[in-house]
Specification:
two-stranded antiparallel ribbon
């Protein structure tokens, strides 16, 4: 997945996502539509829209229609990909309930610097696509999460006594 080095605040991303979501059903989007969709005031929305236009993510002229630029569409595509990758990891690997996984995925995204977020998503994406499908250490981790304790096999690895016993394929 290609990287986008532009990073918006959580607030501006909400506006951009709102425009994206509204555009699925309406090609003639105006500031009032975005304001209504988000439940925000018109003046606040107009300021955010102007900021997004200056950043090149949307096309907008005052009192005119709002459309996403090619760069805006790419930004949203990458944002959704990152969010879904993190949310799926939290849900499918760590067993976090889907609603909570989504909420926490957003918090994780905004708590990381851009370079760390890119590396983190790359790691999660790699693990998802790895031909091993599920490394032994991941199974051991899931077991530990479920039972609340480390298996006897893994205890040797974790303690550093005697080396790895094969639970994680680390030698």
């Amino acid at each position: 997945m290609e990287q986008n080095n532009k990073k918006l605040s959580a607030s501006l991303e909400k506006y951009l996502l709102a425009i994206f979501n509204i555009s699925k059903n309406n090609s003639n989007i105006i500031v009032k539509d975005v304001s209504k969709y988000l439940g925000y005031g018109g003046a606040t929305t107009a300021t955010a829209i102007k900021t997004l236009a200056k950043s090149g993510l949307i096309n907008y002229v005052p009192y005119g229609n709002i459309t996403l630029t090619k760069e805006g569409i790419e930004y949203i595509r990458l944002k959704l990909y990152r969010h879904n990758t993190i949310s799926n990891f939290l849900n499918q690997v760590l067993g976090i309930e889907k609603t909570s996984a989504d909420k926490n995925a957003s918090a994780i995204e905004y708590s990381m610097t851009q370079d760390v977020l890119i590396q983190f998503v790359h790691f999660l994406d790699f693990m998802k696509q790895c031909s091993c499908k599920e490394p032994k250490w991941l199974n051991s981790c899931k077991h530990s999460l479920k039972d609340g304790k480390i298996s006897a096999k893994c205890a040797n690895c974790v303690s550093g006594k005697g080396g790895c016993s094969g639970c994680c394929s680390i030698t």
